[in-house]
Design brief:
alpha/beta; 10-stranded mixed sheet; single chain; 12 helices; binds 3-isopropylmalic acid; 2 domains; Isopropylmalate Dehydrogenase; binds manganese (II) ion; binds nicotinamide-adenine-dinucleotide
């Protein structure tokens, strides 16, 4: 059987720094577990713009469609802020999501015991937290038409359109219900049905899919603003949260801080099954290119490493090895290793990005 194939798009800023640690782990699987991945690498984001004048070439897009999974670091940075919207680094990522039709973005927020003290919330609010945000990723206000900046009378007007079809809502809600069945069997759907028609439809369709196909799953609905409040008040009331593209973006950054740092949160973006039965998939940390710390060896590589663990679980049927990587992360945190983002205001001695990666490799060795 052919080796599993991976396309690495490390991107900009801290993207290549955190991805270097994932590459060590991919190498570890080759030498220590006899699992060799066919790895190719390419450009996305600002670095692709610098090389080719576009944040994603057609050739890279075609490669992404062919591989078993894409691993992405991060894109963007101040250098590209004034670029035309059509060639901004972020457009490269949005094109990948849209053309691969990666409609279900899984963003798990788990609080490791060793970090429960570090959250900005009280320890008992976050200790043992394990929630899964399912963010719709290919539609909504990110992609709706009309959009643009127009002139109306003597002033400019900026327009974006929130648009959801019934089938787009139904398919992402199925992803959420399926996940809930393997977890604690609860889904909370979040929208703004009190002010947006797309929210009214969202609520109706999620309820219909539930009643028809998943009556065994406990379903509740919440307005997204109240959801944000509840996520900080008592996040452990949630199991799976399903929400749209924009609310999911906001709520997942919020959920990241429940776990201690944005540098901890991984994600999987999944589409429909390919011919081999596995979903089209892209894995990436939730965080961005962190221009404020790029190039300093300070970035926390754990979000990117846990994203690779999600690839093992969702693309390669290697659930036990995914758990092995997660346990290795848990072990180094329990041993007290911290990158700078996991230091409190009183400071301490943070380890570098590569020292964190090396410690995780050592914990993986110890797991054999
Ligand atoms: P960001 O996530 O890059 O950074 C926010 C804050 O979190 C910064 O203080 C940063 O230092 C810190 N941080 C983030 N990841 C970290 C890590 N792994 N370790 C330690 N600290 C970390 O968000 P931003 O500053 O709003 O955006 C910067 C750029 O990244 C923008 O161009 C934005 O569009 C882009 N972005 C890209 C992605 C992506 O590629 N998926 C996601 C979010 C933002
Ligand atoms: C994310 C990011 C992206 C988004 C940007 C970089 C396009 O914030 O993945 O959370 O808004 O979806
Ligand atoms: Mn975001």
């Amino acid at each position: 059987m052919a080796n599993p194939s991976l396309l690495i798009l490390a991107g900009d800023g801290i993207g290549p720094e955190v991805m270097a640690e994932v590459k060590k782990i991919i190498g570890w699987f080759g030498t220590r577990r006899g699992v060799t991945f066919d790895v190719s690498e390419d450009l996305v984001g600002g670095c692709a713009y610098d090389a080719h004048g576009t944040p994603l070439t057609d050739a890279t897009m075609a490669k992404a469609q062919e591989v078993d999974a894409v691993l992405l670091g991060a894109v963007g940075g101040p250098k590209y802020d004034s670029l035309d919207f059509s060639v901004k680094p972020e457009r490269g990522l949005l094109r990948l999501r849209k053309e691969m039709d990666l409609y279900a973005n899984l963003r798990p927020a788990q609080c490791f015991d060793a970090l429960a003290d570090f959250s900005s919330l009280k320890k008992d609010v976050v200790a043992g937290l394990d929630i899964m945000i399912v963010r719709e990723l290919t539609s909504g206000v990110y992609f709706g038409e009309p959009r643009g900046i127009f002139t109306e009378g003597n002033e400019r007007v900026g327009i974006n359109t929130q648009r959801y079809t019934e089938s787009e809502i139904a398919r992402v809600s199925r992803s959420a219900f399926e996940l809930a069945r393997k977890r604690n069997n609860k889904v909370c759907s979040m929208e703004k049905a009190n002010v947006m028609e797309s929210g009214v439809l969202w609520r109706q369709v999620v309820q219909e899919v539930h009643d028809r196909e998943y009556p065994d799953v406990e379903l509740s609905h919440m307005y997204a603003d109240a959801g944000a409040m509840q996520l900080t008040r008592w996040p452990k009331q949630f199991d799976v949260i399903v929400t749209d593209n924009l609310f999911g973006d906001l709520l997942s950054d919020l959920a990241a801080m429940l776990t201690g740092s944005l540098g901890m949160l991984p994600s999987a973006s999944l589409g429909a099954p390919m011919a081999n039965g596995r979903p089209k998939a892209l894995y990436e940390p939730v965080h961005g290119s962190a221009p404020d710390i790029a190039g300093q060896g300070k970035a926390n590589p754990i979000a990117c490493i846990l994203s690779f663990a999600m690839a093992l679980r969702y693309s390669f049927d290697m659930g036990e090895d995914a758990t092995r990587v997660e346990k290795a992360v848990e072990k180094v945190l329990a041993d007290g290793l911290r990158t700078a983002d996991l230091m409190g205001p009183e400071g301490g001695s943070p380890v570098s990005t590569s020292a964190m990666g090396d410690a995780i490799i050592a914990a993986l060795d110890a797991s054999l």
